[in-house]
């Protein structure tokens, strides 16, 4: 699962980052920094990042790309379809026009009733570029009382919906890198290349904290760090607690090797 999103950092800089899902967290994988204060990254910037990532991944690794409405550009979707075997689920705007029942129609004009959801198969995407075929997942957002739309090549609504639930972990990654963790949002670096190097250092540190959090669980050290009868700490928080414990008690830093498969341990309440 590769999650893509952008966030503001430093002095008028934007970081566009791809992360990989791991055990209710997202790990930084690849990113680009550029000047900007708000708004979306260009499709060319996105494609350059996707192409670099594709070159890094073994060809036989199944990939699912998850993104919000910033990543539904026709050029990007067309590249997914023609140049990769990846699955993708990206939110798209309600004004996007698709070829529906032989007529180009904005998604919000398709007659879905309030509370109704659906899945449009084998449609053409955007009147201007006419790419596809793609599928459109239609979800009812109860909180906002409106339909949300997602462009995807997942074969079923259930698979597209289940995949997209993983996307929100990149929000927790940004929180950990910024206000709830390393406070990168407070940096005064104005040059994108310098910010890029700072993020690289933070990404290494973040990976180490996640690794320490996993070791704390698997070794049982967690019982010395937090209450396990009311367990709600993330792997990142556990890693910080464990590092503080190691330094305070002058303990040896445990060997940190490759992260174990996420299904080999439970990130849940641990009985005494």
Brief overview, please?
This protein is an alpha+beta fold.
Features:
272 residues; 2 domains; 6 helices; globular
Shape: globular
Q: What is the fold named in CATH at topology level of the largest domain?
A: Transposase Inhibitor Protein From Tn5, Chain A, domain 1
Largest sheet: 10 strands, mixed
Individual helix count: 6
Structural class by sheet pairing and helices? alpha+beta
CATH superfamily of the largest domain: Transposase Inhibitor Protein From Tn5, Chain A, domain 1
Bin the helical content.
Answer: 25-40%
Reported CATH architecture of the largest domain? Alpha-Beta Complex
Average pLDDT number: 92
Element order: H for helix, E for strand:
EEEHEHEEEEEEHHHH
Strand order of the largest sheet: 3-2-1-4-5-10-9-8-6-7
Number of strands: 10
Cα(first) to Cα(last) distance is 34 Å
What percentage of amino acids are in beta strands?
A: 25-35%
Q: How many independent structural domains?
A: 2
Which stretches of 5+ consecutive residues score pLDDT under 50?
none
> Which radius of gyration do the C-alpha atoms yield?
21 Å
CATH uppermost class of the largest domain = Alpha Beta
């Amino acid at each position: 699962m590769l999650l893509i999103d952008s966030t503001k950092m430093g002095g008028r800089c934007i970081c566009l980052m791809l992360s990989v899902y791991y055990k209710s967290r997202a790990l930084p994988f690849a990113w680009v920094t550029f000047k900007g204060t708000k708004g979306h990254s260009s499709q060319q910037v996105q494609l350059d990042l996707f192409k670099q990532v594709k070159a890094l991944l073994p060809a036989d690794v199944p990939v699912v790309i998850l993104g919000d409405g910033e990543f539904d550009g026709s050029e990007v979707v067309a590249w997914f379809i023609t140049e990769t075997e990846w699955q993708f689920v990206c939110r798209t705007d309600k004004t996007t026009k698709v070829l529906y029942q032989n007529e180009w129609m904005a998604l919000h004009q398709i007659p879905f009733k309030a509370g109704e959801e659906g899945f449009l198969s084998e449609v053409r995407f955007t009147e201007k570029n006419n790419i596809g075929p793609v599928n459109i997942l239609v979800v009812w957002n109860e909180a906002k009382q409106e339909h949300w739309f997602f462009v995807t090549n997942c074969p079923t609504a259930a698979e597209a919906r289940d995949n997209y639930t993983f996307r929100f972990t990149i929000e927790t990654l940004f929180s950990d890198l910024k206000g709830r963790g390393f406070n990168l949002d407070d940096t005064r670096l104005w040059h994108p290349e310098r910010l890029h190097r700072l993020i690289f250092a933070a990404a290494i540190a973040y990976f180490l904290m996640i690794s320490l959090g996993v070791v704390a669980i698997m070794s049982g050290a967690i019982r010395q760090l937090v209450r396990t009868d009311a367990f709600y700490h993330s792997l990142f928080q556990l890693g910080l607690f464990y590092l503080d414990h190691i330094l305070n008690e002058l303990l040896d830093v445990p060997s940190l090797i490759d992260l174990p498969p996420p299904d080999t341990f439970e990130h849940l309440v641990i009985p005494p």
